[in-house]
Amino acid sequence: MTAKILDGNALAQKLRADFKTRAEALAARGTRPGLAVILVGEDPASQVYVRNKVAACEKAGFHSEKIVYAPDVAPQVVLDRIAELNADPKIHGILVQLPLPKHFDSDAVLEAIAVEKDVDGFHAENVGALMQGQPRFIPCTPYGVMKFFEEAGVDLKGKEAVVIGRSNIVGKPMAMLLLHAGATVTVCHSQTQDLLFHTRRADVLVAAIGKPKFVTAAMVKPGAVVIDVGINRLPDGKLCGDVDFDGVKEVAAAITPVPGGVGPMTITMLLANTLEAAERAAQ
Ligand code: NDP
User: How far is the CA of 29 from the centre of ligand 1 (A)?
Assistant: First the structure.
């Protein structure tokens, strides 16, 4: 079997065209969606992510502001700026690029963002709302993954879904969304005793580990849908996912590639959340 490749670029393009139309309609009524992105420090990967987010906003016709601080900036300076952005009517979404330098209390920074502008969905109140099945904002990466299932017509009801990884930004919200969609969900992590036992019975397998080509064909149930969230840079400079794509595509029914899978969808869902925040603010 050769898996169907779930093309994140194509899906992202389709969704972004729709967002652009919605943004234009909103702008015609006097509200241009606006996103502020805060970057602290000079981490090269974070710089790329921020640049891509701002570029995607501009392409979609959104207003965007990029705010960059030196790595040794005092946390209060950032908190004060967030307070200003909370009160700024041009800004509907505020995103703080993680990770923050060690002298920051990341939770305090995330909690400082107004809940109705927290387009990453990381504020504790928004995490709680997601848990209760009434999300205000769905965290962008798992939200993008759910769009793949929707697009591919994967009915999650009654499916065995296994998520490898339990981070706050990917694994946990992913598990919650799968659960709400009717799947039976198992979350695996570094202390899981028999990972193979779990992955081999997964109808849907989501890998969010941060280890190149960790998931091999032998770990995958034939016919499974495999979503690769991982982004790893190999010594030769190339990007690869957490899944051994060449091996697993011979076993799975469908698979996302890296690059060109979940990555473009993450930014797309950031646009979705910002647009939705702007539409709510305009009401
Ligand atoms: P974290 O490092 O926060 O979490 C990794 C998870 O993998 C942890 O829960 C960890 O377990 C688990 N893990 C590590 N080793 C093993 C193992 N041997 N067996 C089973 N589980 C293991 O990473 P993130 O969730 O932030 O990101 C995961 C990957 O996704 C990274 O490659 C990241 O770059 C990528 N990413 C991609 C995005 C995109 O847009 N495509 C967006 C966000 C992230 P434990 O909790 O026990 O330590």
Answer: 42
